Amino acid sequence: MKSRCWDRAARFAAALAISAGLAVTLMAGGQQNQTPSAQPASGGRAPRNAAEYDEMFHKIKNWGRWGPTDQHGAANLITDAKRKQAVGLVKLGTSVSLSHNYLKDKAPDNPSPFEHVMNRGLQSDTYRVSYHGYAHSHMDGLCHMLYQDKTYNGYPRAEALTENGCTKLGIENLKNGVLTRGILIDIPRLKGVPYLEPSTPVYSEDIEAWEEKAGVKVGPGDAVFLYTGRWARREKLGPWELMRNAAGFHASVAPLVRARDVAFIGSDAVLDVYPELVQDANGRDQANAFHILMIAALGVDIFDNLDLEALAETAARLNRWEFMLTVAPLAVAGGTGSPANPIATF
Question: I want to staple 160 with a disulfide (CB 3.0 to 4.6 A). Which of 6, 47, 168, 227 is the partner?
Answer without folding.
Answer: 168
